Amino acid sequence: MTRMKSDRDLSGPSELVADIPSLFRNTGVPLNISCEWEPEYIETSYSKANLLELDIALEAVSERVTAIGTLILQWSAQCRRCLDHTIGETKISINEVFEKSASEGETFELPNNEKLDLKPMLTEQVILNLPLTALCSESCSGPSETKFLVSAADDNIGEKKDPRWAILDELQLSDE
Ligand SMILES: [Zn+2]
To answer: Is 133 inside a domain boundary?
Structure first.
């Protein structure tokens, strides 16, 4: 469900690539990074990232680099009830560690070269936080026609279904 193009498309503001030797020359001194990034390629089948506003501090501590701060994700998606285009904003707390021989799923790899590119880490945060089942509003009641059309649109199957299965469909959807 996640589509990513080649590294060539990983262009973004230069602030998103930190100089590792300079971080370790200034151990204990946070490097603040504040910038906006309009990624062209971060999207799921359900939603797309439009703009990221990053405000974090990088700091070298012993052999590691920590990244702490916030990321505001502005996304667009299709409302799962009325299918209208809808937009929203999600605030993500960043609290990550880069280190050599990173542990899968816990820390990020600190590269051997001199450049620490923050974009793969940010991309992962965004993918995890893009909405799977967006709503244009909590009170959206879907299109005015019939309730049946709403549930058909929800599961992308154009056939009549027992409404008792709708609950199961919801559960499966949120498990993805
Ligand atoms: Zn809606």
So the answer is: yes
Element containing residue 49 per DSSP (H, E): strand 47-61
Q: How far is the CA of 166 from the centre of ligand 1 (A)?
A: 18
The answer to whether residue 158 sits within a structural domain is no
Residue 42: which domain range? 15-142
Task: State the distance from the centre of ligand 1 to the C-alpha of 140, rounded, in angstroms.
Answer: 5
Closest CA to 125 of 88, 48, 71: 71
169 CA → ligand 1 middle, Å: 18
- How many domains would you assign to the chain? 1
Q: Which stretches of the chain score pLDDT less than 70?
A: 1-10, 144-176
- Classify residue 173: in a domain, yes or no: no
The 10s digit of each residue's pLDDT in 71-116 is: 999 999 999 999 999 999 999 999 999 999 999 889 999 998 899 9
Task: Report the C-alpha gap between 87 and 78 in whole angstroms.
Answer: 8
Is 20 contained in some domain?
Answer: yes
Q: What is the distance in A from the centroid of ligand 1 to the CA of 29?
A: 47
Rounded distance from Cα 116 to ligand 1 centre (Å): 40
